[in-house]
Amino acid sequence: MGFFAKHKVDVQFHEVIGGHRAANMMLEGGADLATASEVVAMFNSFKRQDFCILSTFVSSTNDVKILARVESGISTLADLPGHRVGTVTGASAHFFLDETLILAGIDPNKVHLQHVQPEKTIEMLRDGKVDAMVMWEPWVYLASQKLSSQVTVIPHSKTYRETFNLLAKHELSQKEQPRLRRLHRALIDAVNYMHKYPSKVQRMVAKRFNKDIAVIQATWRDLVFDVRLDQWLLNTLESQGRWAISRGLVEADKSINYLSFVQPQILHHVAHHRVTLF
């Protein structure tokens, strides 16, 4: 739509699979910016302090879901203890599972957790290698379509808001503020266009990534597109930091002050009402 050109920003895209790979590319100097979930930022914060979050551009309280085999007898969260549950350990889906179980009064240690890569979701459920999968979209939708009546989505309280964010090195965020402001103006224009013409944008995305439009439409409704920096992002990072320590996923004995990992100046200059940090 020419939003980058409109704001005089030259952008070159490097496509990788997974926010952790995008973040690594940026941190290693292969890119200026990266898009990744907040959990990727959290894990990297225990390794280095030279990067920051510039903004959140999409969030969801229903991207990660629990999909169970009907034959397993799992129909509610209370049925999960004692069953084999697959997920990507140490990722947002793992955090979602633990938090969801704890809030439901269930000990996460009573679930037999198995590490499973996303692309194995259908296979693991189909072959009975797990009783349930905790995974993000579009893998849950694809498995539901493929396995149909063999699987069911388990209801849960939507308490975890997953975010996808724009990351940069601290040094670049200080040196390139005029360019980053123009970039954010372009992002805001793009999001406004998405809200105005959702069907058109969905077709564009399906064509760009060579995906079935039905997949895009099914997962789109769970996503909230908005360029922001909100306090609940910090709250989530702090909760995830404590969780990672308690689970032994990082080598640390205390959590981190995540306010130092957020750079609000750029977005605040562009649209101060989009920043709610305190």
UniProtKB/TrEMBL annotation:
<comment type="similarity">
    <text>Belongs to the bacterial solute-binding protein SsuA/TauA family.</text>
</comment>
<protein>
    <recommendedName>
        <fullName>SsuA/THI5-like domain-containing protein</fullName>
    </recommendedName>
</protein>
<dbReference type="InterPro" id="IPR015168">
    <property type="entry name" value="SsuA/THI5"/>
</dbReference>
<feature type="domain" description="SsuA/THI5-like">
    <location>
        <begin position="2"/>
        <end position="199"/>
    </location>
</feature>
<keyword id="KW-0732">Signal</keyword>
<dbReference type="Pfam" id="PF09084">
    <property type="entry name" value="NMT1"/>
</dbReference>
<dbReference type="GO" id="GO:0042597">
    <property type="term" value="C:periplasmic space"/>
</dbReference>
<dbReference type="GO" id="GO:0042918">
    <property type="term" value="P:alkanesulfonate transmembrane transport"/>
</dbReference>
